[in-house]
């Protein structure tokens, strides 16, 4: 009896043990440093203290004058719109699209500079013949350091300090260039880095770069086992690639290869950063640790082909590499890819894959060189290209302003050519593999202006079909994917990456707003079930303050500018307490110069929400919402609209163009901000044109603008007529 029971118990207990062992057996456990893994996963980051914004609003007035009362005339508005139209047109390229480029910081070029030395491809068949001029980079770095020794990837105009990661990249590049370590620039940078905890307290992507050079040990970094990208049952169940946000996989894949082989080279003392580890901070420069040492490159070559799991990773890298050479359209992932290819080439020189790898390395370099040095954002770290996005926003701005040139029509047709089989629009070049739903929604808005154009109407329907399908369960919409909002079984691993990148692609108010606005423009209203669920999502995610966090723009002001016009477009009654609450929130944050601004610190501390120096883009976003509220007359917004318009006029008069003096684009919330050169050209023009249409005393008259040749009276008729004559090709 008893033995029988025990037997049954053993069998019952054995099943889960067997299952667990089966799964564990698939993990290349012998390579896994469990101690280090636990250490990394439990590592508490140093508290990142966020300074308080100054209590007085005066500090936010930088360049534009204080506006007590708006004094502009109708003529000022018209003049400003004309000038803005002219400025947008400077971005028209190749007679088919608009492009102004974007960037995330010169520190990415610093990293590229150092990694090029690591790869040692100069004067070989892979020589990228780089356009990177050391002197230019040096000048850029030496003139952008903050007084505390730090660098920032992009400018937050409300503060005067940077961050540890950017500072490490730039310090490293300068050291490799030969900058004396005891120069004030290096001494201050070092002091800043050590005050933030030193090299190990940089984020995981920064640490990977250091690991290739031996400055951080592989055991101190996150280990990703090869099986994650294999085809075992466990790999398929976890389905890492299918769970995470679109941008994660192209980066993690080549890193997985490198972690497996612990890819590393001793490049000599000039590449060392031992002085940035706290334990070495007190040591004198005479210490043997800092002694000069030449590079010592080991022979890692093996006979034959690698094991199957490695070949699988290689095949996946081939798959993710896009036609223009990028790993998923990003430069950083491409550079990780080149390192992995380069290692493979040296490790398995007899492999049959070598000829193909060689070609792929060359293509990868071409892409990086093009992004970093072949555009308006040269040396600024243009990580990927957003040509569709820039084309759409520029065109919408021109349409709103009543511009009737053929550029808009050609741009709409360019976008038609870019529409994918699933109905989506990719963000920019080499992104054809991934539809961007924000772009798709904004394309719907643009194409909807071409009323009566059968082809574009079909494309709007097709795009909307896709957008219907990708609504998340919570009713919101995300940027690239349907329901990739988290997956518990892999979160214990992905958490370790979360200091460098967002891992998920969650629903957000800004994309949801744009999608709803597109639906509204194409004829749907708030009674449609999908629109209804979208509105419920917005109601459910409103913060107690009254705002919504911005995912792709900075920050609550961006969402405000997306949500209110969307609700208006779908015919929703704006006279609701929750909307009045959002409006009250934004009204509290108007600056003394009439503009609006919000520091990226708003992602780290509520104290900064809605607080920051005024920028034309953020002023435009606030205006886009306020204009609808004022027009519908649902609550008293005082003279906030006029003051904001005055700010835009003052800025244009002062500089001849709109320019954001503080970053307004968000790559990854809280740690990676992005400058979109196109934003201050397009968003304020949209806002100002709407102001003119809603409240102007007379219809805007652009007849005297030098940029226009012939002017029929009805913009839409003209556009539609021209569009009919320029049939876009099929997708
Ligand atoms: C909303 O759309 C539905 C379906 O097209 C239509 O029947 C209804 O009249 C619309 N409501 C409003 C207020 O426009």
Automatic annotation (TrEMBL):
TM ranges are 6-25
All copies of the Squalene cyclase C-terminal domain together span 389-693
Looking at the record, the residues that make up the Squalene cyclase N-terminal domain are 82-282
Q: Do you know which SUPFAM superfamilies this protein is assigned to?
A: Terpenoid cyclases/Protein prenyltransferases
Q: Which GO terms describe its cellular component?
A: lipid droplet
User: InterPro entries annotated for this entry?
Assistant: SQ_cyclase_C, SQ_cyclase_N, Squalene_cyclase, Terpenoid_cyclase/PrenylTrfase
GO MF terms on file?
A: intramolecular transferase activity; transferase activity
UniProt keywords, alphabetically: Membrane, Repeat, Transferase, Transmembrane, Transmembrane helix
Report the domain of life of the source organism: Eukaryota
List GO BP terms, alphabetically: triterpenoid biosynthetic process
Stated name of the protein = Terpenoid cyclases/Protein prenyltransferase
- Species, as recorded: Piromyces finnis
